[in-house]
């Protein structure tokens, strides 16, 4: 029920590049979100990115796990027909789950891709 299946992920570099080039970006202190609209019949797909500026592999993996957990718990609130790339920024490594959740949900609201518009 809460797993991230292959058809809901961006897998190829080419897919990421299309979202970067044609998508719209939304930024806050902890993360950057790129959104590319697609056909509403297709499921939402997402990719998670952490750059080397964040730190060593342990810190990058922790940031990716944080972003994936927020997405996992809120994936059914997102609209269909979008490709998303969520990029962790260096301040994400100091954030706890609650702060990361608040920040990422704020980006989803800014992008207008949440089906429900209430605060958690």
Jot down its keywords.
3 helices
Task: Estimate the mean pLDDT confidence.
Answer: 92
Instruction: State the helix count.
Output: 3
Helix content: 25-40%
- Domains (count): 1
Largest sheet: 4 strands, mixed
Q: Specify the CATH architecture.
A: 2-Layer Sandwich
Helices and strands, in order, run as HEEEHEH
**Apparent shape:** globular
CATH class: Alpha Beta
The computed structural class is alpha+beta
Q: N- to C-terminal separation? A: 20 Å
Oligomer: single chain
Strand order of the largest sheet: 1-2-4-3
Q: Count all strands and give the number.
A: 4
Radius of gyration equals 13 Å
CATH topology: Ribosomal Protein S5, domain 2
% residues in beta strands:
15-25%
Ranges with pLDDT <50 over ≥5 residues?
none
Brief digest:
The protein is α+β, with helices and mostly antiparallel strands and 120 residues long. The protein has a single domain, classed as Ribosomal Protein S5, domain 2 (2-Layer Sandwich), CATH 3.30.230.
Model description:
The structure is a single chain. This protein has 120 residues and is an alpha+beta fold. It has one domain (8-111): Ribosomal Protein S5, domain 2 (2-Layer Sandwich). It is built from 3 helices and 4 strands; from the N terminus they run αβββαβα. It has helices at 13-22, 57-74, 97-111, and strands at residues 24-27, 31-37, 45-50, 82-88. The chain has a 4-stranded mixed beta sheet, sandwiched between helices. Strand 1 and strand 2 (31-37) form a beta hairpin. Helix 2 packs across helix 3 (97-111). It is globular, with a radius of gyration of 13 Å. The model has no long low-confidence stretch (mean pLDDT 92). Its EC number is 3.1.26.5. Keywords: Endonuclease, Hydrolase, Nuclease, RNA-binding, tRNA processing. Belongs to the RnpA family. InterPro entries: Ribosomal_Su5_D2-typ_SF (IPR020568), Ribsml_uS5_D2-typ_fold_subgr (IPR014721), RNase_P (IPR000100).
């Amino acid at each position: 029920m809460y797993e991230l299946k292959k058809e809901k992920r961006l897998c190829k570099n080419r897919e990421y590049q299309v979202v970067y080039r044609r998508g719209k970006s939304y930024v806050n202190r902890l993360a950057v979100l790129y959104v590319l609209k697609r056909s509403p019949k297709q499921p939402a797909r997402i990719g998670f990115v952490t750059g080397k500026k964040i730190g060593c592999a342990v810190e990058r993996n922790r940031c990716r796990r944080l972003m994936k957990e927020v997405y996992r718990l809120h994936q059914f609130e997102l609209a269909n027909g979008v490709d998303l790339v969520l990029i962790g920024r260096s301040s994400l490594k100091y954030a706890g789950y609650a702060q990361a959740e608040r920040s990422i949900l704020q980006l989803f609201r800014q992008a207008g891709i949440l089906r429900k518009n209430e605060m958690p």
